[in-house]
What we know:
Number of domains: 2
Distance between the termini: 9 Å
Helix content: 25-40%
Radius of gyration: 19 Å
Strand content: 15-25%
CATH architecture of the largest domain: 3-Layer(aba) Sandwich
Amino acid sequence: MRILAADIGGTNSRFACVEIDGLSSVSMGEPYVFPTWLDSIGSLHDLLDHFQHNAPAEIADLGHYRAVSLGVAGAVDLGQATLPNIPWDIDLASAGNIPDIFLLNDFVAQAHACLDEDLLDQLEPVRPGTGFGPGSIAIIGAGTGLGHAALKPLAGRRVVIGSQSGHTTFAFHGPEERTIERFLISRTGKKWISNDDVISGAGAVLIHECLSGELASPAEALTTASGNTQTCAMFSRFYARACRNYCLAMHPVEKLIITGGIAAKNPHLVRCKEFSQEFNDADHYRHLLESIPIYLNTDPGLGIRGAAIHAWQELGG
């Protein structure tokens, strides 16, 4: 089955031709990548139009595909998506004359990709653990925003569970963190700060400014090359807190997969002692968290693969 699959993020959109004949038989071509925030793009119709007019000819013709499947960074319901980090929303009714088009949350797409157990073996181990199986596979990742999803065991198979936990309130602890909270509120103009506000590229920039008084890009703020040890340590602590909370929500957890561009480009953030100490800090449940194996995904095409797998399943694969 030939599917045009896409991962539409708050920074970039990635489209690729995917040929699929089963969970362990997925072949993905080179993605065509372009900024989601182009001035010419203000709707799904514009996005697809840009792809068709600018992508390489061998993948640009929508008529060559059995289906189109779009993973998007936002809440999805009944063919519509609310996109918090993009200035327009999606309604499949505006897609035009495409017979089979599917819309799903980008982390729901990542979870679908993890249905392929061979793919799980290719992830980079962060730390070992026995886990609790059969249990949840918890997936969380920071980039432009913070995404969550899980695979839950059910009658010998796994089902995908979506989440918008990135948009729940982030819990700050102690005087130092309260200072950061007040700084984020003053900069964002919000009444309260979400996980998405903190554990994201934009969050890293503000945390770094609060701690150092310096302006920096997300890449500059989170690199160890510039000696930003305080920023990195604080961001790692916050990232681990979000991971811990999600694993407790999804208990029992068989494994935790950390994905997204921030950890892929800065693996030190999830391999440091600050991350481990914060992740394990849960009083009576500490032993449960210490047992969870943690893996890192560095493949930016995971969501594209998962979007294609979702379409394949929906079409009877």
